[in-house]
């Protein structure tokens, strides 16, 4: 799970599956490096189990595709829980220091 800021400073959520913790850590390192090279601020980057089924991550999503609101709850050192919310739900944006907040994603919840 990676939460970065868009050009307007709003949090954007992306979740990618990995076959193992080691694979996730490699993916995280690579993606964070690429985002930082593009001057994209990364708030949170974690490798943890996501129990919520989501549409697969698709690179290059346009800003208008970020329409799915999720509550993000950080647990432990690497854990996180995601909960889909109605798009009109009032929710404080996640920050680097918050344990809970919201972010938009281009990935729809499944099931």
In whole angstroms, the N-to-C terminal distance is 19 Å
Any idea what the radius of gyration is? 13 Å
Percentage of β-strand residues: 25-35%
In sequence order, what are the helices and strands, one letter per element? EEHEEEE
Oligomer: single chain
Total count of helical runs of at least 4 residues: 1
What structural class is derived from the secondary structure elements?
Answer: alpha+beta
Task: Sum up the overall morphology in one term.
Answer: globular
**How many β-strand runs?**
6
- Main sheet: which strands, in order across? 3-1-2-6-4-5
Number of domains: 1
The major pleated sheet works out as:
6 strands, mixed
Mean pLDDT: 93
Fraction in helix: 10-25%
Question: Can you give a write-up of this model?
Answer:
- The protein contains one helix and six strands.
- The protein is of the alpha+beta class.
- The model has no long low-confidence stretch (mean pLDDT about 95).
- It has one helix at about 20-35; strands spanning about 1-5, 10-15, 40-45, 70-75, 80-85, 100-105.
- It has a six-stranded mixed beta sheet with strand order 3-1-2-6-4-5, covered by helices on one side.
Strands, helices and their partners?
Elements: E1 2-5, E2 11-14, H1 21-37, E3 42-45, E4 68-75, E5 79-85, E6 100-105
Parallel strand pairs: 2-6
Antiparallel strand pairs: 1-2, 1-3, 4-5, 4-6
Keywords, separated by commas or semicolons:
alpha+beta; 111 residues; six-stranded mixed sheet; globular; 30% strand; single chain
In brief:
By secondary structure, the protein is α+β, with helices and mostly antiparallel strands. It has one helix and six strands; from the N terminus they run ββαββββ.
């Amino acid at each position: 799970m990676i939460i970065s800021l868009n050009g307007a400073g709003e949090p954007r959520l992306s979740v990618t599956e990995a076959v193992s913790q080691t694979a996730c850590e490699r993916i995280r390192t690579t993606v964070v490096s690429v985002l930082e090279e593009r001057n994209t601020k990364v708030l949170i980057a974690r490798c943890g189990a996501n129990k919520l089924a989501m549409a697969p991550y698709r690179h290059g999503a346009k800003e208008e595709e970020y329409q799915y609101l999720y509550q993000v709850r950080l647990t432990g050192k690497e854990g996180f829980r995601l909960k889909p919310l109605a798009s009109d739900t009032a929710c404080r944006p996640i920050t680097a220091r918050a344990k809970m907040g919201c972010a938009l994603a281009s990935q729809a919840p499944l099931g």
